[in-house]
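pls design
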C-alpha cells in the first residue's frame, strides 16, 4: 500500500501516473499493488523522483502476513481470497 501527500500539483500528477503503472488507486492519494521484488524496487526508485522531503510525504506499507481487510463504499478492486496490501 502506498499513500502520499504532495504539495505541488505537477509532482503530485507525476506521482499518480507513476503509481498507476504499479497498482490500483483505491482512494485519492492511496494505491494498492501486488508487486514482485523487482517491481517494488523499480517503483521505489521512480517514486523518489517526485518527492520533496522538505514538504511532501510518501509512505509505503508492506504486509507479508495474512490480515483481514475491510472496505466500505465504492470498491472497484478485484476480489481475492487473500489480499496483500
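designed seq:
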Amino acid at each position: 500500500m502506498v499513500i502520499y501527500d504532495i504539495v505541488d500539483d505537477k509532482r503530485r500528477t507525476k506521482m499518480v501516473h507513476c503509481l498507476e503503472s504499479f497498482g490500483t488507486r483505491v482512494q485519492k492519494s492511496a494505491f494498492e499493488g501486488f508487486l514482485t521484488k523487482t517491481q517494488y524496487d523499480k517503483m521505489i526508485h521512480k517514486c523518489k523522483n517526485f518527492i520533496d522531503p522538505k514538504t511532501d510525504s510518501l509512505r509505503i506499507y508492506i504486509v507479508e502476513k495474512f490480515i483481514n481487510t475491510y472496505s466500505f463504499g465504492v470498491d472497484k478492486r478485484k476480489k481475492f481470497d487473500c489480499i496483500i496490501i
